[in-house]
Each structure stands twice: as structure tokens, then as C-alpha cells.
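for the recovery benchmark. C-alpha cells below, seq after
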């Protein structure tokens, strides 16, 4: 089914709504000659074709999908994977996550095990031809950024014969919670969307388990899962997998990447409430601009016109 969009809505998969994406997926999969799987990237970074050790591991990871092709359209967790959602402790050093939910392993999970697809609604990052948005759409898009995974190593081909302003082909998987009249809030993804970043944690502060590295205080020492971008019959999929053994009760953690945190920091600074001093300086700036517009600029303009008339008058008299 070319329209499957690996999206959970009350436990059922949802079809692709965007006709551009649906047409491109159908074309790519119909024109593909085999079911060969290609590996596009890990955590958004391109995989080197010369790294045979990595390729061998990744090929072994694909065994469940090779044995059961229906998993390509399964929006839930893969068979045998159990993840429990727990509330992040109010003593957790990641202050912004306190009270929110995280994903924890119910039982031991072996290294290089696929947890499932990063499931959600696949859509274009930028809406082609749309130049204006309502305030509600702007607010929704702003909040949704924390629930989106941007596919790094694939771009949707531009449809032939169509002029689409703003079309760049960049796709995102959107798991943002929506609201319906019947059932209230729900998510479009699965449990993998609850995987948090390890930024702010150290091995001493993690609830259970933890990795080891040369720098035990780095978030990377606790990261135990990763995003894997693959293509099957030309179409991109994002899988979430472990890269080391994960103990029961251990929180599953991924690396969001520097770009995510840079964007998050910029957005928080832009929308953060301004201090009294900042508001005072801003008010003074706009007062000065208004004063200049109504008093200084007209005066300068008058002087300039008089000077021009005086010069032109003298030249005519001469």
C-alpha cells in the first residue's frame, strides 16, 4: 500500500494526506527493481560506503525486516520490544523535562536491536506556495518543532511540469499531539517519540544503567540509541535502534544533535519574556524613532528644500 504513512492514530495507521508525497512514493516504489535496503545515515550523518564493519552490523540489524516485510508498514514497536513511559523525576538535572515523560526499557534489550519506526505524519517541511499562516498555525508549527524529525539524506523530487514556489523537497516526520472533539489530545507517533536526549545527565545522576566513555561526564556516555535512516525501494524510513545493551529500567536516550539545540536555544531566546530593562530600552528606541519621524526628519527636509531653492534661485539670477 503506497499510501501507508507509519502513523498511529488511536492504534491505526494513517494514510498520506499530501498528494505530492503520495505520488512520489508510488513512483519511486513502482520504479524500483528490487527490495534492496540502502543505509542513508545515522543520527542524520551520512554513512560512509567504505566502512564495512558498520555496514555488516546494519545488515544484521535488518534481519527482522527481511524476515517479515509487513514490519515496513507497522507503525508500532517491533515484536518483543517493550517500552514503559515514566514521568521524569522532579530531581532530574534536566529541569526542562521534569514532570514530562520518558521511555524506559521494560526488559533487557540487546545491542543493535531495532525498537521500531520513528512513526508520525510525513509532510513537507515548507508548504509550497503558502506565504501566510494564521496565528494558530504559527503557534502550532512552533510547538511542533520538538516533535519533528527532519529527514537529512533524502529530498522529495520536484514534480515535473509544476511550478511550486518555495518547494525544497525536505521531509519531516511529525509526531505533534493534535486535538479532536471526540477524544481530546493524542499522539500520531509511537513510544519512540518519548526518547529524550542525555544532555544534562551524567552517569552518577541517571536513574539506572548507563554507558561508559573516556569522558564520563559527557551526554554521549549515556546515549544508548540512535536514529537510522534507510531506504527501501527508494523510499526513506527512519528506524530507532540501540547501539549497546540496555538494561531493564534504563532510560532510552538518543542524541538530538547540535542543530536541534541551536534552534531550540534561538527560539527560547526569541520568545522568552523580556526583562524590565529590556522593555525599557525597547520603549526608548521606539520613542526615539517616532520622535525622529515627526520632528527631526521634517525639519531636515525643510532645511534641505530651502537650501535647494536658494541654490537654484541664485543660479537662475546669475
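predicted aa per position
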Amino acid at each position: 500500500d503506497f499510501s501507508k504513512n507509519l502513523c498511529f492514530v488511536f492504534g491505526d495507521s494513517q494514510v498520506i494526506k499530501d498528494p505530492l508525497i503520495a505520488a512520489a512514493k508510488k513512483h519511486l516504489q513502482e520504479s524500483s527493481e528490487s527490495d534492496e535496503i540502502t543505509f542513508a545515515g545515522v543520527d542524520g550523518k551520512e554513512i560512509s560506503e567504505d566502512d564495512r564493519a558498520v555496514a555488516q552490523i546494519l545488515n544484521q540489524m535488518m534481519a527482522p525486516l527481511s524476515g517479515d516485510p509487513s514490519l515496513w508498514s507497522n507503525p508500532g514497536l517491533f515484536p518483543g520490544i517493550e517500552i514503559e513511559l515514566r514521568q521524569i523525576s522532579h530531581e532530574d538535572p534536566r529541569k526542562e523535562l521534569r514532570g514530562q515523560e520518558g521511555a524506559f526499557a521494560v526488559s533487557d534489550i540487546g545491542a543493535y536491536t531495532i525498537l521500531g519506526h520513528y512513526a508520525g505524519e510525513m509532510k513537507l517541511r515548507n508548504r509550497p506556495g503558502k506565504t501566510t499562516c494564521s496565528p494558530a498555525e504559527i503557534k502550532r508549527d512552533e510547538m511542533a518543532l520538538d516533535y519533528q524529525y527532519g529527514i537529512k539524506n533524502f529530498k522529495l523530487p520536484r514534480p515535473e511540469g509544476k511550478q511550486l514556489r518555495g518547494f525544497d523537497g525536505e521531509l519531516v516526520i511529525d509526531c505533534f499531539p493534535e486535538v479532536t472533539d471526540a477524544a481530546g489530545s493524542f499522539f500520531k507517533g509511537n513510544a519512540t517519540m518519548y526518547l529524550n536526549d542525555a544532555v544534562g545527565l551524567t552517569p552518577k545522576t541517571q536513574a539506572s544503567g548507563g554507558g561508559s566513555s573516556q569522558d564520563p561526564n559527557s551526554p554521549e556516555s549515556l546515549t544508548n540509541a540512535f536514529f537510522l535512516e534507510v531506504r527501501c525501494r527508494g523510499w526513506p524510513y527512519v528506524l530507532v535502534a540501540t547501539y549497546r545493551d540496555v538494561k531493564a529500567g534504563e532510560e532510552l536516550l538518543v542524541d538530538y544533535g547540535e542543530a536541534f539545540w541551536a534552534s531550540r536555544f534561538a527560539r527560547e531566546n526569541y520568545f522568552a519574556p523580556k526583562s524590565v530593562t529590556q522593555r525599557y530600552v525597547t520603549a526608548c528606541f521606539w520613542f526615539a524613532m517616532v520622535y525622529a519621524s515627526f520632528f527631526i526628519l521634517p525639519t531636515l527636509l525643510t532645511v534641505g528644500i530651502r537650501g535647494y531653492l536658494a541654490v537654484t534661485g541664485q543660479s537662475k539670477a546669475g
